Amino acid sequence: MSPALELDERAGGRGREGAGRERLGQLLQHHGALLVLALTVLIGTVAFDSFATTQNAANILVSSSFLAIIAIGMTFVIVSGGIDLSVGSSFVLGGVLAAYGSRYGVVVAVLLPLAVCGTIGLVQGLVIARTSMAPFIVTLAGLLGMRGLMLALSGEGADTYLVESDAFAALGQGSLFGLTVPVYVTVVLCLLGIVLLQRTGFGQNVYAIGGSEDAAALMGVPVARVKVLVYLMSGLLAGLAGALNAARLSSGVTILGVGMELDVIAAVVIGGTLLTGGAGGLTGTMAGVLLLGVIQSLINQVGSLNSSFQQVVSGAFLAVVVIVQRVLSKAQRLS
Amino acid sequence: MADATATTALDGRTRVLAWMQEYGVYAAVVVLLLFNIAFTPNFLDVANFRTQLIQVAPIVILSLGMALVIGTEGIDLSVGSVMALASAMVVLYLGYGAPAAIVAALLAGAVVGASGGLLVAYVGVQPIVATLALLVGIRGLANVLVPQLTEFRNPTLIGLGSRSLLGLPLVVIIAAALTALVAFVVKRTTFGRQVVAIGGNRAASELSGLPVRRVLVTVYVISGMLAAGAGVLATARLQASDPTSLGLLTELSAITAVVVGGTPLTGGRIRVLGTVMGALLMQLLAATLIKHNLPQSWTQMVQAVIILAAVYAARGRRAA
């Protein structure tokens, strides 16, 4: 649970019934995606014999892991009241850099994308924190600039670097108990993220800034530093996801990642994190990512539907979730 | 109005900055034009000019709608997907004739716009989330309706994309006419004043009895219909419907044109002609770099710098 939520409860003073209703509303908002996910999985299990198999579950986890890693960083950014449109470009750039760097060994292959994408995230954070420019615009420029950089590195997208280090390829392809390495990386990063967001002073500061930047500044929260750090994290994670994906595909593919930032934002919002900042969390985000993966899998099970249906259903889910969030938060304010 | 009183109070240096904000995009277009006339071979070639203008026309049309939406302190991410949906509608209804197909496309755009507008105005969903849901869902819908690139041979529709009137391409004339119309609406009509007032201060607009919700829905409907129109023109020029890639990332080009043109993302101010200049600047920039054999990747990096510079210059405008 978020500190903001605890504060709300303590501030109480309302009737017990009102508090109970509010609690239910907040529970639904925080864990609604998990509920919908459980329902969707249940429907899938009943409807398709081939759905509830370990193999299919493993497939969903493996294919969701890259989106999940990026979504961790995006959750921090959105909770702080910002947005990062540059992650799709960062993902592709990270992949190309990793594949290029793999000829110098696995260390370079991992560190090069982290260094470059992290630096760009850092610069975006500095610009956002030090000027009053909107994160939307700064990271939109980041999206364009990094895509340009990626094209420049890959001969306008014509050259594909192949991964030349077996050790590095193993990071994307090696598997244990039927799950590839990126799945384990996702789990570890997610646990670290949860601890960082819910159990540390830094996490509290992120919530405080998202709740009210002016109030946070008055309370002595180092607003600029926290903002810079969340954009740095977002850049690092998107670069890492790109590197792992390059390891999985054995090459730095230049055509991926277009519109990926929007998938990530959709997953975070479906997971109950408010785009206005100050509320939400990583468990919801992971439920959001898995829900998108499950929808994709269900649509694959229905052989007659083409994959475009996934977009229709994802869009509809997103619309329903935000309407429900909106209605609940209105009801809360009235009670 | 507020701008005029603010400007008189500014000292010299801020006045220069204010001038840059006000006319910087025009100056940049002129500088780029002069550079090209001086250093780019065959730049003044008529065919070249026509190509540039034809390419930029659909972006201009949907940027006009985006400018109105941003004027209300909103944003419309769905416009690229609406282009794709319009493209799908065109081939689905072409059997009933070109006019029916165009009407169907525009209606589809209006329905998508109305959905976004209702979510924003009545449910209170943030514009970026409401239109993001539409971006994802509507592109999917367009792909479901027309799964692959579908060519057509309807002469009327193809003529819409390729014919000229008095030596000017029809699409350019349409874009210019729509620009004039939107500029008139913003400057001279009650509706235009209401749009700007809502973006400037929504609470005050509500208190003073403006039909805030109705105006908001109308703005998103207009944006949807303009995006659909841009989709029809792009489809006519392609002579094929291609919902998978038509309009992809166009929402970002439109937002760029609006912001570079001097309309603040915080709303309350709309620069119609500036928006057109913003779109022209980006187009001209891309063309210039290509003509001088600089790779496409440079275009995007330079665009990123221009966006940042424009927004940095515009920063603090409302505080002044």
Give the number of DSSP strands of chain B: 4
**Shape, per Cα inertia axes of chain B:** globular
Secondary structure: helix percent of chain A: over 70%
Order of helices and strands of chain B: HHHHHHEHEEHHHHEHHH
Order of helices and strands of chain A: HHHHHHHEEHHHHHHH
Uncertain stretches of chain B: 1-7
Distance between the termini of chain B: 14 Å
Indicate the mean pLDDT of chain A: 84
What gyration radius of chain A follows from the Cα positions, in whole Å? 20 Å
Short description:
The complex is a heterodimer of chains A (335) and B (320). Chain A is mainly alpha-helical. Chain A is built from 14 helices and two strands, in the order αααααααββααααααα.
Task: Spell out the key features of this protein.
heterodimer; A: 335 residues; mainly alpha; 2 strands; B: two-stranded antiparallel ribbon; 4 strands; 76% helix; globular
Characterization of the model:
The complex is a heterodimer of chains A (335) and B (320). By secondary structure, chain A is mainly alpha-helical. Chain A contains 14 helices and 2 strands; from the N terminus they run H-H-H-H-H-H-H-E-E-H-H-H-H-H-H-H. Chain A has helices spanning 3-11, 16-47, 54-79, 87-101, 106-130, 135-153, 166-173, 181-199, 201-211, 213-218, 223-249, 260-270, 282-301, 308-334; strands at residues 175-176, 179-180. Chain A has a two-stranded antiparallel ribbon. The longest helix of chain A has 32 residues, at 16-47. The radius of gyration of chain A is 20 Å and the shape is globular. The two termini of chain A are 21 Å apart. In chain B, strand 2 and strand 3 (168-169) form a beta hairpin. Chain B is an all-alpha fold and 320 residues long. In chain B, helix 3 (46-71) runs parallel beside helix 8 (170-188) and helix 8 crosses helix 9. The longest helix of chain B has 28 residues, at 12-39. The two termini of chain B are 14 Å apart. Chain B is globular, with a radius of gyration of 20 Å. At the A-B interface, helix 6, helix 12 and helix 14 of A face helix 6, helix 12 and helix 14 of B.
